[in-house]
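thought: fold this chain, then report.
action: predict
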Amino acid sequence: MPNLGNILNDPEIVQAFGDPEVAAAFQDISQNPQNMMKYQDNPKVQALINKMATKFGGKPPGGEGGPTV
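observation:
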């Protein structure tokens, strides 16, 4: 399990969470993880999900390229 501080200090992650659209999406997802499907076509949200997934040692949802439709 990676150090959460290292993840939150990643400049790309910090920049992504600074985007109001991405921040709102993650607030929505944190309240109901099933809402992740609402953002599967949002490249900004998916880029952050993929980056965080790899930082946690996993694969992005749907494999290497992200979610599958």
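thought: worth noting. The chain has a mean pLDDT of 83.
final: tokens above.
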